[in-house]
Design goal:
The protein is of the alpha/beta class and 293 residues long. The protein has a single domain (10-292), classed as TIM Barrel (Alpha-Beta Barrel), CATH 3.20.20. It is built from 10 helices and 8 strands. It has an 8-stranded parallel sheet. Strand 2 (52-56), helix 2 and strand 3 (78-83) form a beta-alpha-beta unit. The two termini are 29 Å apart.
């Protein structure tokens, strides 16, 4: 009998403000103005019946990346890490990738492009050279909060670097209830038409929209039609969900959408896509080999 697929949360954050600045985490964020560690995360995952998670950077710093890699080394429920290198300086990016070469848990790179003032970030020659090297090393590239400035640019990047897997976090942050919704959908579907793109069904606590099946369900259908289950992966985006009730109510809504799929498709969204995109099986095999040596 085939073993059941692991259920993987492909988008989970941790942060410790004694490790680095996390300058965006300010008192006005209420319950997010706190530290969130691995024990709390594991409790949330266990309560939802989720086996493993991919940790995703919350700051453009080596300190944050090092923190996540250390957590991964100490916790077998961490399937992989999406960290950060300085993409806009090719020498710095190559040096950082060299320094991280032995980190089996590192499965992807991300830059908080939505907080970067440069609209042309993905067009910068150093960024493209750095991302070509990211691809060469078998790492994926996550793009957060792409709408409105960076969704189309992410598609152009994917077209320019066909060896790079471009992951659109949070469905690109669709502007629900806005006159821009149709424009988002067009760009989202154009990105989905490229074979080296993937999207995360995650982070859908959207401004001005109630979080529930009435809001999330139509977005899920658009994403499913555009990408198909083999290029979609679930992410809980905890602890960003904490101000909205936390992990469990978020999981209830999103798993309700995914649960309508046939088992093989459901397994893809809830683990199989993440396993393939982030090459998590190779990480596990390497970790097991290291532990047995």
């Amino acid at each position: 009998m085939t073993a059941p697929a692991r259920t993987i949360d492909a988008h989970l954050h941790l942060w410790d403000r004694t490790v680095s600045d996390y300058a965006w985490i300010t008192p006005d964020l209420g319950p997010l103005h706190a530290d969130f560690g691995p024990a709390e995360a594991r409790a949330e995952l266990d309560a939802a019946g989720i086996d493993a998670a991919v940790l995703v950077q919350a700051e453009d710093s080596f300190a944050d990346t090092r923190f996540m890699l250390d957590v991964a080394a100490a916790n077998d429920w961490v399937a992989g890490v999406v960290g950060w290198v300085q993409l806009d300086d090719r020498a710095a990016a190559f040096a950082a990738l060299d320094a991280l070469e032995g980190e089996a848990a590192l499965r992807g790179i991300r830059h908080l492009v939505h907080g970067d003032p440069r609209d042309d970030f993905f067009e910068l020659p150093d960024v493209r050279t750095s991302l070509a090297e990211v691809a060469r090393r078998g790492l994926a590239f996550d793009v957060p909060d792409a709408w409105p400035r960076h969704l189309g640019a992410a598609g152009r990047l994917a077209r320019h670097l066909p060896a790079l897997t471009v992951v659109i976090d949070h469905l690109g942050k669709p502007p629900v209830g806005s006159d821009d919704f149709d424009a988002w959908r067009r760009e989202f579907e154009e990105v989905a038409a490229l074979p080296n793109t993937v999207a995360k069904f995650s982070g859908l606590h959207l401004p001005g929209a109630a979080f529930g099946a009435a809001t999330v369900g139509p977005l899920w259908e658009i994403a499913l039609d555009a990408f198909g289950p083999d290029r979609l992966m679930y992410g809980g985006d905890w602890p960003m969900s904490v101000p909205h009730g936390g992990y469990q109510p978020t999981w209830a809504v999103m798993s309700g959408c995914v649960g309508e799929l046939v088992p093989a498709e459901r397994d893809a969204v809830l683990g199989g896509t993440a396993e393939r995109v982030y090459r998590l099986n190779s990480h596990i095999s390497q970790s097991d080999s290291n532990s047995n040596s």
